[in-house]
Amino acid sequence: MTRPGQARGLASILPHRYLLTLLVRKELRVRYQASFLGLAWSYVKPGVQFAVFYFVMGTFLGQARSLPPFAVFLFSGIVVVNLFSEILGNTTRAVVQNAPLVKKIYMPRQLFPVSSVLVALVHFAPQLVILVIGAVASGWRPDVVGVAAAVAGTVIVIALALGLGLLFGAINVAYRDIENIVDLILMVAVWFSPVLYPTSRVTGSFGGWSWLEQVYFANPLTVAVELFHRAFWWGAADPAMRDAELVNALALRGMIALVIALALVFIGDRVFTRMSRTFAQEL
């Protein structure tokens, strides 16, 4: 029998699903309290981001001509990076932002970062709907491999961001400047993953530094973006634009990325569980 109050990691969430639901509702209510647009911000923010990137990268730098339909290519990457950014940013701050609850009552501390993941998925859903509509309008039709790629990409992003969020969130309780480090990571995430450019431009561009190229393609976020490109852009793109060799390598890269992401969840959960014993005192 588990001793009362003993931390058991993410597994401790299962008996507290009702509390998790309450935390998700609270976070959504607080976030949009006194907000004119409310949940519509889930559409506005990615919409503005898409418009800026499309105008700069698509029009000025000519990506719209070299990667048709560039709108689907671009938005496929944006929804992935936005999901990663929201989960990682919010899970890192989850414990600190819920300090009054942490100090007053005992509950599994993992409830706070996991609730942030669910809130991010609430915002991810309308963006995914827009992506599907845009892809269909561009001539895309779903296929089994594409659906599997979309599911795999989503799982990789959630696991990667949650694992890092648990790790950084635990450390952030003691050292608040971790939030600044995470903000830097999120700032460059969109540039160090193939959201604005095809990975074909990365291949060989490192010159003799082939190990840098391997590191780039080992990045789970890079793989997740490419999986979404396979899921939504591939079916609408001109056959001449499709990199069959790259797509054939996605299955192996996807499995490696999933293993890395799940390993980070395990490591992050262990660190979070160990450090959670002193959260109340630190806060």
UniProtKB/TrEMBL annotation:
Give the signal sequence positions.
Answer: none
Q: Does the keyword Transport apply?
A: yes
Membrane-spanning residues:
34-57, 69-90, 111-138, 144-168, 180-197, 246-267
- Extract one GO molecular function annotation from the record: ABC-type transporter activity
From the UniProt record, give one GO term of the biological process aspect. Answer: lipopolysaccharide transport
> The ABC transmembrane type-2 domain covers which part of the protein?
37-275
Its Gene Ontology cellular component terms are: plasma membrane
How does this chain sit within the bilayer? Multi-pass membrane protein
Q: Name one Pfam family in it.
A: ABC2_membrane
Query: Does this entry carry the keyword ATP-binding?
Result: no
According to its UniProt record, where is this protein located? Cell inner membrane; Cell membrane
Q: Which UniProt keywords apply?
A: Cell inner membrane, Cell membrane, Membrane, Transmembrane, Transmembrane helix, Transport
Q: Which family does it belong to?
A: Belongs to the ABC-2 integral membrane protein family.
Please state what the protein is called.
Transport permease protein
